[in-house]
Amino acid sequence: MLRALVLALLLANVAFYAWTQGWLDAVVGVRASGDREPERLARQVRPEIVRIVPASAASAPAAGALACLEAGPFADAELAAAQAAARAALPSAGWTTVPAAAPAAWIVYMGPYPNRAALSQKEDELKRRALAYEELRDDPALAPGPSLAPSLGLSLGRYDQRASATDALQRLVQQGVRSARVVELAAPASRHWLRIDHADAALAAQLTALKAPAFGNGFAACAAKAPTAN
To answer: pTM of the prediction?
Structure first.
């Protein structure tokens, strides 16, 4: 029995040595040297076509690619001037006018406060209750009336529907907030964009270089696609 065990150990050691030398790679299907250089390099297919390029080149648009660019948004009163500027500067660029409604804005509001000390005291109360807030200053929509004094207040949340703001206020009341109220920060309004959906590289460069006041902040990449209308 002992002789058989010694013989088995001897055979096992001989087999292991043979594998480490690579003599049994074709038999066992596992390479003793592993999948590493230089063997892996030798198995490359057409390595001469592989090129290393900088990250900036990899992210650049391909030649001939078309881009969507737009300027705006413009209020109704601003649209005519923007369109006139586009007709003068871009007579054949194929621009269109894209309507985009701006929703109303409602906030849960606290204030206005007469001074910074009163505002800070209210902020400390909100912090103790672990409630998020945003400080508001000099917003005409929140001023109590004609005054030269700055308007100091706090927003406890912004919403595009009055019902959502009212629900939020009710939850805050349950958490101990007593002096907040719902205020309309902005009424619904129509907005417009000047858009060119398919600008080649030359036109894109021309658009981004335009700095006419009528174009506002100028042309930039389209934020989102929308149906177009002349």
So the answer is: 0.46
